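I am still getting used to backbone structure tokens and would like to learn alongside you. Please make up or recall a protein chain and show it to me in full. Would you write everything just below, so we can both look at the same thing?
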Amino acid sequence: MLVPKITSTLTLDPSLQQALSLLPFTLYTDEQQAVASIESGYASAWADIASAAQAKDLLNSGLSVAVLAPTQLDATIDTSRIAFRYSAADVAAHGLKSIVECAIAEGVQRAGAVVLELTADQINEATLLADGGKPLLVQLVNAASAKLLGTDGPVRVLVELVGDGSWTIDMLSRLAGAGADAVVSADQLALDPQEGQLALGEAFIAASGLVSDRADGLFTTVVVDEQRVCLGVVYSNAASVAAALAAAQGVYWSRKRGLWHKGATSGATQTLLSVAVDCDSDVLSFRVRQNGAGFCHHNTRTCFGPVAGISQLAQVVAERRDNAPEGSYTRRLFGDEQLLRAKLLEEATELADASSKSDVAFEAADLLYFVMVKCAAHGVTLADIERSLDLKHRKVVRRPGNAKPQFAAAVASATKPEAPSAIARTSILSADIRPAQPGEQIRMRVYADSELTTVERDALQQRPIIDSEEIMRRVRPIVDAVRANGDAAVLEFTAKFDRVKLDHTVIRAPFEVPALSDAVRAAIDQAYSNVHAFHSAQLGADTCIETMPGVKCSRFSRAIERVGLYVPGGTAVLPSSALMLGVPAQVAGCREIVLATPPRSDGSIVPEVLYVAHKVGATAIVKAGGAQAIAAMAYGTETVPKVDKICGPGNQYVTAAKMLAQNDTAAM
């Protein structure tokens, strides 16, 4: 891929600057230029950064990738957003082969991209066969391609030419053949090249390694709109690509008419937003803003028929803003800000109150309609919304996400449970019911069937009804937050639900066990011995039976390597749960035993549970309860180890979190 490099000292022709902004990546040496480009183009902005602290600020502002020296790495920054630069001085001091080996061992493993500064001679050396067989650059690219960055693809390898040499089309092609990207100073590129410069279109094709599988040499070109909805398929060649970049418009190659400026006669022109090449380097993608009736000659937006869904809604609302009939509801909304505001609040509330899948979809569709009217009234397009989403996604510093006080208070008052309608005092079910006094023995209530009315009998026999969809709706955001934000989310939920503010989530063995009374310690020791003896007896020898000559069937036990044990807390002290869970794990030989239990109001762990954790050989204790504790053990955080299996009782929220985790392959 061609990566233009723009320095603070360069003064570029505006048409060239616009053309460069259409390419997938741009590298800046000036961070202010990089930030400015984020607001104006679709290209991913990379920048050379001096320090990790500066990198964090710029990445939070929307910079795609920060290019740093390996020594500047900040472990808190997502590695896919960092590129390691190996300077010409590094190569001169240690040799090309040594730097490539270092980049494979260090850069590929710890960063999302590697930038090598090489002279023209070193580029030749790197692309020639090495002693071991493959060229050095190919070895580096192969190692990088094998390291996938989640959904961001593989680690990239960039080569920047330094020294007295200049890029040539042949050098760009050889680099692309090795699978690497070429960083080319913007002053070496031109739409109308002079001596010593490369034609931008030709350089883009060469550096992309673009090839054609057609006899006529044309490149298949997929045209998509701002939402990446496919408008149609056309063809391009070197001449049309150069013309498209120069004009920043949809320009293609017609097999009948030659150079084809889309919409030149019909008015359905296209503003070119970005150009890209697919992973196999045999298909071009033009991202455009379609003007006029549409891309197709049948006046439909796409060659595959009209658009649907949110894209269609945005298109229709934008048209109604300018052409809505008098008296229509849409015209009324555009003309009455108070009505639109009221409808937005109304639909948002109805969506918040919806619980079933169909109701949520219905209310979300209603809200989206009014959202798009609001946006259209202010000239905001769907592409503007998506750009804002992309910038938010790039932030590396997340806000807590708490509701504003006035909204939190409104929800709390609206959802405050009503006092249950009390059974009449004359009913037998309510007679003599009062809180127990301190020291008073609590007795189970007993009712005689012969003394009950039908209504009273039905009330006693009614099982508690749990709305599983509602529980899942509450638990899923907690699980997602812990998975995304790790320890910070666990601490936040612990403060919210357990009302305990902690500095850390995990304590590790050996544990400092508070003093216990002799009677309590002896009772726990006796229970431990009993449970241990029972489960030790369950460890049978491996079984191997020859069912027929030459056929042996065996049965053997192997311990789960990492287990999470959930011990409920709250009003009860449950060392028994810790024993029943921890002793089997210890007897089985689990290498890592992680125990999770809610902390007390002072942030400490119940001493009896802490003592059991010590006896069963727990390796770590997570000071958290509820769904957040299950999520932390299922997915792992910065300090909570990820476990292979979670055991233990809990309330409906704990059970729901377990169900979500067991159905998610990422937790396996």
